[in-house]
Amino acid sequence: MAERLAIRLPSSLIAEREQAVAVLRLNRPHKRNALDDETIVGIEQFFTSLPDGIGAVLLAGEGENFSAGLDLSELEERDVTQGIAHSSLWHRAFEKIQVGKVPVVAVLHGAVVGGGLELAAAAHVRVAERSAFYALPEGSRGIYVGGGGSVRLPPLIGVARMADMMLTGRTYSAEEGQAIGLTTYLVDAGKGFAKGLELAQRIAGNAPLTNFAVMQALPRIAAMDPASGYAIEALMSAIAQADPDAKARLKDFLEKRAPKVTRK
User: Fold this and answer.
1) What's the burial of 43, exposed, middle or buried (CB within 10 Å: 0-12/13-18/19+)?
2) pTM, two decimal places
3) Which of 8, 83, 110, 243 has the fewest CB atoms lying closer than 10 Å?
């Protein structure tokens, strides 16, 4: 049974707890969960204030869409300095997701567009329902991505595909998004939340230090030159193996108290 988390958030967000998993729902279905500044500040507050005992976060959207992106009704005339500050607000919030306290699973359905796609890209695992579709319509709006998409999306789909989406308004379906690397799981309509929660619970059961290494070390190692990457990998591996939790889990496996990996 889910219980509300005692984190002060705007009405555009709902925070609950499912045992060791915190669930954050975008709650502006009448606006297709468009992201206004209040919601972005709330997202940052949520990920900064996660209580002890939370091992993973599940991010989802209420209604028929994950998020249609930036709330254009809030778009006001800004000078360059103000524009940089606004983009930095999004960067700070989404960085709390990507390199925060615990891994994040995003469940995607309906519109995953513009800033909504940037938000999804900050998660570590993405589950899509077949209703999901992806677009970056900034080019036709006369604007440019400002929520970290230039950094997070090219490693997933490549610079050429991202440029094509922005220049031509190309939209990808859920199946196409799965094929090009936007998501790692594809499920039928209505099954995304259950699948996402299952994955989040599995992640929350991992050794915390291993989850930390995957979140914090892996992306940095991938961006290093090979020699530096090998050195950091060896160091992280040694640290993880020396952790008491890891030693206990290995002992359980060797003494046949832990399940073996099998094909499911």
Assistant:
1) buried
2) 0.93
3) 8
